[in-house]
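P.,

For your records, the input lines for the assembly:
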Amino acid sequence: MNVFIDKGEFVFFIGPTGAGKSTIIKLLLREEVPDKGKITVGDTDVTRLRRWKTPAYRRSIGCVFQDFRLLPNRTAAENVAFALEVIGKPKSVARRVVPEVLELVGLGGKEHRYPHELSGGEQQRVAVARAFVNRPLLLLADEPTGNLDPDTSIEIMRLLDRISRTGTTILMVTHDSNIVNQMRRRVIEIENGQIVRDQARGVYG
Amino acid sequence: MRAKYVMSEVFLGLWRNISMTVAMIITMAVSLTMLGAGLLLYNQVDVIEEYYQTNLEVVVYLDRDIDEATTEQIRQELEDSGYAAQVVYESKADAYERFKDTFAESEDLVASVDEEVLPAAFRIKMNDINEAPELQAAFAEREGVYQITNQRDILQQVFDILGGAQRLTLIVALVQGIAALMLVANTIQVAAYSRRREVAIMKLVGAPNWFVQAPFVLEAVFAGVIGAIFAFATLIAAKFLVIDGQFKDLFSLMPPISMQSILLLLPILTGISAVISAITAWITLRFNIKV
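Structure tokens returned:
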């Protein structure tokens, strides 16, 4: 398969289970390295990226998952700050940026709640905030609404839409036909590792 | 900030897995104690060798019924032989005195030995102790000579015992060391598993590898250093309680083990232990669980 995604695009990857949607995410994160083929993100050839350069590369990518992946013993603000902390940003940066981002995702006032004190939608907002706090060029979302009810899902999509408007490329894997149909963005359908449809402003079909 | 985070992770990790941490420290301490004892023995053999090299004597025991003329002849021959730097005659009476001194605490033994039994002897300081066999060969068959002993042969037995003890301590150190390193590897795996969520998130947001690995490696280093300190304390205790204490008489045969050489072991043991633990932890992370 051969795909080009332009800067600032919002793309849905859809397809049946086992089609290879999540593999795309893993390849882009360099959690897996392909046997052949070439993946380029920005100027980086991910397939030829050295192991020790992977961390630096990942900093240019944000990632959101179905299961949120928050640290349970840290508050919303600390979870977001953690992403800055581990890449060596000074605390002063975190103090300035974290409230901003939490405000952006609509969690103002809930900075000091722990994940178990937040609803699923709110937890996913924290995850989005963490993915976005470094202002990545590319945001990967692996079924981000998979664990959320329809109303909450739409709120999360609005949030992703807003982030997309800042110029961030968003690549989202999903099963959620409602969302795909409502958003009317580019849709790439995959089956058995092959692209069967690539449609600008597409529907789930 | 990051240093603080790493340190708190280290102690949390060790505490969460406390039984394994204790097992790791104990095995390391035993291994390092043995290694330390082995090194001390190694040092001791050198010290003893040097100490005795200048004091060793060859003793020519004379027949009990020897007459004065023959004795005087033998002395002359010994002095003329060129091997001896100094020849000292020890009469039967002298020998008995020496015997009484040596075994002053065992009166029964002293009482049971007749003054006449002990032979007279020439105690010879050699020009070169390595020529002792030649001297022995030359005088062994001489009329009036009962027996010739080279103190170095006796000392050789001491060396053999020390050498054996040294080999034993080093083998125990090696076996315990392997066990300790396996425990390190295991502890690191358990620690990495219990923190897999943090590790996954750190890697996801692009934390540098050293930052992800540091808490685990430092955990191993910390345990290694504590183990080394315990080993050091054990050796100090052994010096005061065993060597200078209960078995003072036994060890007084040898030159004392100096405090200085024990103190020197602290940095050596700590360094060896910390470095090997760190390498083991890092290899475990790198190749076993791919952190």
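Two observations worth noting. The radius of gyration of chain B is 30 Å. Chain B touches chain A through 16 residues (CB under 8 Å).

Regards
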